[in-house]
């Protein structure tokens, strides 16, 4: 994965913007499991912090899309947890302040983008996760404002219809009708699980874990929208574009966080089954370089920074829940 870092733009993986934030999160996650990785990548975080915004013309990691900003802000929280460098937490707070200006839709919740034409589930999930994460990391004099924002966002999310009757999250909401719409993608099922674990830490209220558990069960059930008859994620069957190849990474990150907070055998099995499938069917080593494809069920497909990043997420998840 690191062979793609800084090749096209200093501070980023390939030409990927928000995906680089997700990849950096996975890198921080693996470092949190094995401290021998820490020193290796601290300079990577610093370079990304200082160079990525300039090289992709997004000062302060701010652009026109609230979900992009959410990926980066949550990434800086993960890097802060690892490094304890307050600059990274302050960056997450700065991005949060910009995101918060978009919580003004006629339907409730956060807009997807500053053009105010769509309400995306992912933007709201990232915002809830971020608010709860900040509540768990700022001083006691600041905690309540973030906790209140997170709980308000969560309550709206579950009342809005974005979580369907089958306990799967749909893509978003029509800005004119306030009706839920769109496909049910893996990252929408995963990020809300991350939100639940952070909200549980912030409040001690186990109902967040219980609701998240319903989504986790629906997502990992055999022959569900997301999972096939063998317990393997179906996304990217036939290939994905660069963004779509990253989606499943967020599912495995959120699910492993939920598993650590509220262990269930079926979630652990889903994670390890998919990690084994990736290892056996969509991974090879060529000229000393490890390559991973986008469909964990195989066959091996084209490789890029995003397929590598999503693969790291599932392998880290398996490591975390079995160690």
TrEMBL record:
Note the InterPro entries from the entry.
6-hairpin_glycosidase_sf, Glyco_hydro_76, MUG_Protein
What Pfam families does its record include?
Glyco_hydro_76
BP GO annotations: carbohydrate metabolic process
> What SUPFAM superfamilies does its record include?
Six-hairpin glycosidases (SSF48208)
Question: Domain of life here?
Answer: Eukaryota
Task: Tell me the classification of the organism that encodes this protein.
Answer: Eukaryota, Fungi, Dikarya, Ascomycota, Pezizomycotina
Q: What is this protein called?
A: Mannan endo-1,6-alpha-mannosidase
Which organism is this protein's natural source? Talaromyces rugulosus (Penicillium rugulosum)
């Amino acid at each position: 994965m690191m062979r793609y870092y800084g090749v096209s733009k200093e501070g980023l993986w390939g030409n990927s913007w928000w995906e680089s934030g997700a990849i950096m999160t996975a890198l921080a996650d693996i470092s949190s499991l094995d401290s021998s990785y820490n020193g290796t990548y601290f300079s990577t975080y610093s370079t990304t912090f200082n160079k990525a915004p300039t090289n992709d013309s997004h000062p302060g990691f701010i652009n026109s899309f609230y979900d992009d900003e959410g990926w980066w802000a949550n990434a800086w929280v993960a890097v802060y947890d690892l490094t304890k460098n307050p600059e990274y937490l302050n960056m997450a707070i700065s991005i949060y302040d910009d995101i918060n200006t978009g919580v003004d839709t006629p339907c409730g919740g956060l807009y997807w983008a500053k053009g105010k034409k769509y309400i995306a589930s992912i933007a709201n999930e990232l915002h809830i996760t971020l608010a709860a994460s900040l509540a768990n990391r700022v001083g006691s004099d600041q905690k309540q404002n973030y906790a209140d924002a997170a709980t308000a966002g969560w309550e709206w999310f579950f009342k809005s219809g974005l979580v369907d009757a089958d306990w799967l999250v749909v893509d978003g909401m029509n800005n004119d009708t306030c009706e839920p719409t769109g496909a049910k993608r893996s990252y929408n099922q995963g990020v809300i699980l991350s939100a639940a674990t952070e909200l549980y830490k912030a409040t001690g209220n186990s109902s967040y874990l219980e609701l998240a558990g319903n989504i986790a069960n629906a997502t990992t059930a055999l022959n569900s929208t997301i999972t096939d008859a063998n317990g393997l994620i179906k996304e990217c069957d036939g290939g994905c574009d660069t963004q779509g190849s990253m989606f499943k990474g967020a599912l495995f990150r959120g699910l492993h966080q939920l598993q650590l907070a509220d262990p269930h055998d079926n979630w652990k099995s889903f994670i390890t089954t998919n990690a084994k499938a990736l290892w056996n069917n969509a991974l090879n080593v060529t000229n000393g370089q490890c390559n991973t494809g986008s469909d964990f069920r195989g066959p091996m497909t084209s490789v890029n920074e995003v397929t590598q990043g999503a693969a790291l997420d599932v392998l880290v998840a398996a490591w975390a829940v079995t160690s």
